[in-house]
Amino acid sequence: MRVAHRFQNDRMQLELSVSDDKLKLFARIVPQTDSANAEVSDLQEQLLKVTQDSLIEEGVVKDIIAQLRQGKGCEGRRIAKGEPSIQGRDGKLVWLVRRFRPGSGIDPNKELADFYNLGLFENIEVGKEVARVYKPTGGTVGVDVFGKPLTARPGKVLASRFEKSLQFKPNETHPEYQTLVATVSGYAHEEGEKVTIRDTLVIENNLDYEMGHIDFIGNVRIGGDVQKGFHIKARGDIEVLGSVLGENQLTSQASITVKGFHQGGGDAHVKAGANYTVGIAHGVNVEAGGMITIKKEARDCSLRTVSAVLAPSASIIGGSIWCVKGFEGRTLGNEMGVRTSIELRNELEVTAEYRAIEEKLKKHETALAALELHIGPYLQNRKRIPLLNAKFRVKITDLVGKYDYVQTSLEKLKDAVKKMKEAKPAEADSRVNVTQELHEGVVLSTSSCSLEIKEFQKGPVSYRPMESLGKWVVVSYQPLLRG
Predict the structure, then answer these.
(1) Average pLDDT, stretch 246-253?
(2) Does residue 331 carry a pLDDT above 90?
(3) Coil, strand or helix: which one is 282?
(4) Which segment of 3-17, 28-42, 108-122 scores lowest on mean pLDDT?
(5) In angstroms, how far is the first alpha carbon of the chain from the final one?
(6) Residue range 279-300: average pLDDT?
(7) pLDDT digits 0-9 by tens, 341-356
(8) What residues contact residue 290 under an 8 Å CB cut-off, 6+ apart?
(9) How far is it between the farthest Cα atoms of the chain?
(10) Measured on CA atoms in the order 241, 244, 248, 249, is the torsion positive or negative?
(11) Helix or strand (DSSP H, E) at 26
(12) H or E segment and range at residue 372
């Protein structure tokens, strides 16, 4: 502090000091011989030589004079104060959604009950309000204890850059901010000054505990492997540059591509709305709405598609393939005669609904066979049932009732299957092409005929079902249509 004013008479010795920020005035007063007759005006007169009347604290002045009349002084008592300037508020971005920030996964210092469902971002639809951008304010001018104005710095304009995936929407109710609205579907991303909505979620390395399961509205790209047990659900394409290591569920309304090795498992499942492409697959269960392409090998897989299965440079060993537009591969089966099934079906028969009905058919047929064994001769000669003793009669009657119920249900299922087959005939030009090796143990089927390969055949060889003849026939090789 510095001394701004000094004064002395027979009532007081006064020293006024100002704080370093010039906002406070302090008084030091020492009583003199005639202090008992001190008046408020005596002190007020001296204060006005330094500051303005509006800045003086009148209550403090009166209290100081009351104390002075009793012969008491004061040491460094604040007696006036200025008004500090209020700096303008900078423009700011306030998010209304949970945005994705790389590296924001698991904190090893925190305990989590579920390492899979982390929910590190929020899916954003087109038109969703994602953030508010507040305008900078001009600030409020202040005044120091001498009555001189204190300038106020205006707020800074927000430095963020907004890409075309976001657009501003004025808010008439709250003119102090504008609302940011998404023009594409995806997730909100902020990196430095750049703000955007991204329609592709890129995980640079492996999908693991750092990210958890993914459920995304757009495309997903994994730069490494999908670790065991982690699932991906996407509205757009899924692309894995590494491998998928087992017990994973991949679901996409578009295409799924696994560049490396795809390991299946008991709970593993793949459902692609469009194409499925893989380097090497083992034990994978796939449903595809488009082409299935195998680059090197598929072993013990279940592949279902409403289109074709193409493996021009690959081996298909074991498992089963259901397709509509045909199959073409380099090698089918192996020298050990492993059963490898190729079935040409119509578009309805390769659906999950049809397979569910087929599974029910098998269960019903198994149940009927078991009931026939338990009921025995009474099934065909039901007139004998009333002659049985009471306990056995009740048991057999109950079993017969169950048999009739299952039989009726089975007939309904068969009728449903028949209608599905009649609704959509199989592709007339579909065929099975093998360009190099067709091994013993391969079974070719349609819903009405089948053929088991009994001996090795060197390709190229082409088989086509002749429904009118109820059998498969060898035809001249023609490359399978790839559209």
Answers:
(1) 94
(2) yes
(3) strand
(4) 108-122
(5) 87
(6) 96
(7) 999 987 766 666 777 7
(8) 255, 272, 273, 274, 275, 276, 305, 306, 307
(9) 138
(10) positive
(11) strand 24-31
(12) helix 352-375
Which of the four pLDDT bands, split at 50, 70 and 90, describes residue 427? low
Buried b (16+ CB within 10 A) or exposed e, 154-175: ebeebebebeebbeeeeeeeee
pLDDT higher than threshold 60 for residue 114: no
What letter represents residue 62's amino acid? K
The pLDDT-based confidence of 108 (bands split at 50, 70, 90) is very low
Of 452, 449, 448, 480, which Cα lies nearest the Cα of 340? 452
* Structure tokens belonging to residue 427: 């592709």
What residue ranges in 84-152 does DSSP mark as E strands?
92-95, 129-134, 142-143, 149-150
The CA-atom distances, in angstroms, between 62 and each of 65, 221, 276, 292, 341 are 5, 76, 89, 94, 105
Exposed, middle or buried: residue 436 (CB in 10 Å: 0-12, 13-18, 19+)?
Answer: middle
Residue 362 has, within 13 A of its CA and on its CB side, a CA count of 5
Residue 236: CB partners within 8 Å, gap ≥ 6?
Answer: 199, 200, 216, 217, 218, 219, 220, 252, 253, 254
